[in-house]
Amino acid sequence: MRYLTSKLSQQIDDELMSVAGAFSLDQLMELAGLACAQTLATVYRKDVYPRVLVCCGPGNQGGDGLVAARHLGMFGYNPIIYMPKPGSKDIYQRLQKQCENMYIPIIPPSNDLEDLRKALQHTDVILDAIFGFSFKPPIRAPFDAVIPILNESRLPIVSVDIPSGWDVEKGNVHGIGLRPSALISLTAPKQGVSDFVGRHFIGGRFVPKSLDEKFELHLPQYPGFDQIVELVSGTNKTSS
Amino acid sequence: MRYLTSKLSQQIDDELMSVAGAFSLDQLMELAGLACAQTLATVYRKDVYPRVLVCCGPGNQGGDGLVAARHLGMFGYNPIIYMPKPGSKDIYQRLQKQCENMYIPIIPPSNDLEDLRKALQHTDVILDAIFGFSFKPPIRAPFDAVIPILNESRLPIVSVDIPSGWDVEKGNVHGIGLRPSALISLTAPKQGVSDFVGRHFIGGRFVPKSLDEKFELHLPQYPGFDQIVELVSGTNKTSS
């Protein structure tokens, strides 16, 4: 399986949403967010970990987080959304509204970290949808303060695509990133997570055969009609 | 659980996609089509029934069928799309393109029923996505001829929402509709299928709690993180 650079990830995303790929952002985000929710539900059962703090960044990954929050609500979890810097795109507002219709609480945007600290006291597991494959350091406020607080909580963390604060290609080189126990890579894993040691899933079962071939992704086979597949160690890797 | 009229089904769909509901057609169609594919895969295993003829109508249900065809391709089935009257909306063209990128064959649109007859000789199971909850008789050409041919094939049929040719509220009163062995009701079942005797599933796990309450749908509880739930006989029904 190929581990992707930030640039190649962007190229694949662009191709999926091009005239040739024909996907809309709504479709991809829906399937990606569903895969995130299913990963969390696979690793952290709702009877033991019902309270999920869904941390959303201002970009597309925050959108994946909002979709995941809605599905987690559907699955019977009690998600709460922490989104200190809401994205401006129309789609985030629609996704947020969908969560509100599920009665999912949203912590009002603010730079006051007390809200976050308080929420963590009532959290069983964190879904990290803060930064995605287009993240470039440095970590901007308020997330530079948020990430250490999340780590210090010692709660289990499920990260989406790339643990927030990690270099997309080099990993947690500066030691300032989140320390997740589980990871869901979307489309294909990024180079920065090649040494990740927790449970690692792939999601985004929408990459057509033509694109898998073109980019030589060698994606793993998903079982049955699942939307996620767990990687087992010893998987072949090719950097690109 | 409430069994819906055609009018109420339309009202719920409109509400889901209103400013208040905030869903896009792309999102709903993606989850609906995924539920259709999962239903077929649950009832007809791909090692025994690998070849699926996906029959699509010209409306939104045809779009659900195209999404289902793509997911069936992802699941390892060999779907073929039969869509004699393609819809004109941009979304159908995008969904069709997504199927082409999965190398899913599409029978060229035509009124020549020989194409259909030939395809049925190489089919193990049919997915019926021809008419949905807004169907009003009479059955228009070429579907007036297509439906008897599908029935005569004696192949198992999975119908989406309402078996094609059935009255949405009264069922197969004229005996001219398809005779499916399994059914996937989207959002909530329609009045016309209240006496359906095959395996019956509900899909479309996107109805928010607020809307379930407003329309008193009393939707069944989905298991785990599945996108479909099978109904067992003896379920309470309320007509509306």
Structure explained in plain terms:
The structure is a homodimer of 240-residue chains. Chain A has one domain (2-239): YjeF N-terminal domain (Rossmann fold), CATH 3.40.50. Chain A contains 7 helices and 10 strands. The N and C termini of chain A lie close together (11 Å). Chain A has 240 residues and is an alpha/beta fold. In chain A, helix 3 (60-75) links the parallel strand 2 and strand 3 (78-82). In chain A, the strands form 2 sheets. Chain A has an 8-stranded mixed β-sheet with strand order 4-3-2-5-6-7-8-9, sandwiched between helices. The first copy, chain A, is globular. The A-B interface holds A 20-24, 26-27, 30-31, 34, 37-38, 41-42, 71, 74-75, 93-95, 97-98, 101-103, 205-206, 208-211, 222, 224-225 and B 20-24, 26-27, 30-31, 34, 37-38, 41-42, 71, 74-75, 93-95, 97-98, 101-103, 205-206, 208-211, 222, 224-225.
In one word, what is the shape of chain A? globular
| Element string of chain A (H = helix, E = strand) | EHHEHEHEHEHEEEHEE
| Low-confidence segments of chain A | 236-240
Radius of gyration of chain A, rounded? 17 Å
Widest sheet: strand ordering of chain A:
4-3-2-5-6-7-8-9
- Based on DSSP secondary structure assignment, what is the total number of beta strands of chain A? 10
What is the number of independent domains of chain A? 1
Please identify the structural class of chain A as seen in this structure: alpha/beta
Mean pLDDT of chain A: 95
Most extensive chain contact? A-B, 34 and 34 residues
The number of helical elements of chain A comes to 7
Examine the secondary-structure arrangement and name the CATH architecture of chain A.
Answer: 3-Layer(aba) Sandwich
CATH fold node name of chain A: Rossmann fold
- The level-1 CATH class of chain A: Alpha Beta
Q: How far do the termini of chain A sit from each other?
A: 11 Å
Helix content of chain A: 25-40%
Largest sheet of chain A: 8 strands, mixed
**CATH homologous superfamily annotation of chain A:** YjeF N-terminal domain
Name the assembly state: homodimer
Strand content of chain A: 15-25%
GO cellular component, one term (chains A, B): mitochondrion
Domain YjeF N-terminal (chains A, B): 9-219
EC number (chains A, B): 5.1.99.6
Subcellular location (chains A, B): Cytoplasm; Mitochondrion
